[in-house]
């Protein structure tokens, strides 16, 4: 399986994963063979890329959360945020129901350590991002041994962490070039806007509301809006900050392409202790892997192999099967990527 940008698609390619609309309906199902009219439609709708490859192989890969639940969550988040943007009140009940489904599924799949990477249109980024951050936060909450009620409270804060962006003008939120200082100051206000929205919601805890307020605070005190540091930042916000940073880095945005999961995890490791909580990052690196077992990958040396073991960022073993010229190796070798300075995974194939 590989991610192919829409401008590079060709008729005859097979979709490895379904393409969904912002409303959660399937536009093109997994296994569909692409035709020119499908490619043109994807381009017209603004999709940056799709997954290409064997749909059966992809279906066999483990998931922390089912695609159906994730898409339902995206749909609910979008409709809820849109309602508030139009002057309505944020209704917590449907969000709480889908959050409970997410928590239940992640708890059942607690031994599944796989990345969350999805293809989103640029104007749908916020909704898919909120759901991904929720799932990643729940995974970390489980590893931190939070009790069930606390875990669900964390999940609510995580899925709503960016609700304040509904008050940011689209010309800033979707601007394809660098923001001006004044625009950046306005963008940073989304944390305060989010807190204002959430603290008025009956049935939502103050701790969950503070996730929206504090998820851009940094442990060295250089974050915003209040410059809090270390334990002055609520644990929920420290967890969400890591999930938020990872998903933002790996996602295509209107102004830049996302980096690979491996590159993002390396950057998270670099930010450890200086900007992101040391203990939370440690848990994150043991809970998420850049490439799941069974997937084929290409190394930056040109060699191709299969991921054999993936138990967190610090344990990723690849069986190299083909050399840089694509020739099968008579003797296949296993490489621990984190212990081998000369080789890195470039992408899935």
For the CA atoms, what is the radius of gyration? Answer: 20 Å
The tally of domains stands at: 3
Which fold name corresponds to the CATH topology of the largest domain? Answer: Hypothetical protein af1432
- The CATH superfamily of the largest domain turns out to be Hypothetical protein af1432
Strand order of the largest sheet: 8-7-6-5-9
The topology string of helices and strands comes to: EEEHEHHHHHHHHHHHHEEEEE
Mean pLDDT: 87
Task: Name the structural class.
Answer: alpha+beta
Quaternary structure type:
single chain
The general outline is globular
- Briefly, what CATH class of the largest domain? Mainly Alpha
Just name the CATH architecture of the largest domain.
Orthogonal Bundle
Alpha-carbon distance between the two ends:
5 Å
Return residue spans where pLDDT drops below 50 for at least 5 consecutive residues.
none
Provide an overview of this structure:
This protein has helices at residues 36-45, 55-59, 67-85, 92-108, 125-143, 148-159, 170-173, 181-188, 190-198, 206-214, 235-250, 261-271, 278-287, and strands spanning 2-5, 19-20, 26-28, 49-52, 296-299, 304-310, 316-322, 328-336, 345-348. By secondary structure, it is an alpha+beta fold. The protein folds into three domains: 2-59, Alpha-Beta Complex (Molybdopterin biosynthesis moea protein, domain 2), CATH 3.90.105; 67-287, Hypothetical protein af1432, CATH 1.10.3210; 296-348, no CATH class. The strands form three sheets. Strands 8-7-6-5-9 form a five-stranded antiparallel beta sheet, with no helix packed on it. A two-stranded antiparallel ribbon has the order 1-4. Helix 5 runs antiparallel to helix 6, helix 5 crosses helix 11 (235-250) and helix 10 crosses helix 11. The protein is globular and about 65 Å long. It starts with a strand and ends with a strand. 38% of the residues are buried. The mean pLDDT is 87.
């Amino acid at each position: 399986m590989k991610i192919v940008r829409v401008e590079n698609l060709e008729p005859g390619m097979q979709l490895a994963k379904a393409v969904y609309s912002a409303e959660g309906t399937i536009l093109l199902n997994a296994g569909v063979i692409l035709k020119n009219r499908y490619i043109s439609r994807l381009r017209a709708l603004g999709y940056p890329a799709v997954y290409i490859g064997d749909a059966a192989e992809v279906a066999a890969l483990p998931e922390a959360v089912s695609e159906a639940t994730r898409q339902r969550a995206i749909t609910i988040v979008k409709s809820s945020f849109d309602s508030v943007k139009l002057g309505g009140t944020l209704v917590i009940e449907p969000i709480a129901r889908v959050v409970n489904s997410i928590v239940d599924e992640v708890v059942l799949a607690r031994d599944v350590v796989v990345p969350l990477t999805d293809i989103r249109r640029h104007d749908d980024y916020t909704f898919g991002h909120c759901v991904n951050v929720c799932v990643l936060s729940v995974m970390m909450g489980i590893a931190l041994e939070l009790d069930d009620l606390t875990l669900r409270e964390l999940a609510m804060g995580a899925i709503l962490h960016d609700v304040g962006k509904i008050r940011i003008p689209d010309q800033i939120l979707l601007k394809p070039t660098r923001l001006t200082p004044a625009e950046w100051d306005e963008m940073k206000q989304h944390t305060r806007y989010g807190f204002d929205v959430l603290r008025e919601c009956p049935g939502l805890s103050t701790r969950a509301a503070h996730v929206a307020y504090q998820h851009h605070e940094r442990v060295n005190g250089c974050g915003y809006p209040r410059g809090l540091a270390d334990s002055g930042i609520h644990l929920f916000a420290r967890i969400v900050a890591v999930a938020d940073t990872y998903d933002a880095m790996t996602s295509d945005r209107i102004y830049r392409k996302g980096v690979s999961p491996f590159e993002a995890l390396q950057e998270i490791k670099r930010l450890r202790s200086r900007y992101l909580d040391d203990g939370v990052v440690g848990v994150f690196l043991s809970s998420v892997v850049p490439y799941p077992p069974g997937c084929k990958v290409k190394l930056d040396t040109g060699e191709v192999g299969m991921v054999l073991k993936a138990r967190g960022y610090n344990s990723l073993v690849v069986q190299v099967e083909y050399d840089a010229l694509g020739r099968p190796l008579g003797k296949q070798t296993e490489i621990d990527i984190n212990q081998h300075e000369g080789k890195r995974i470039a992408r899935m194939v």
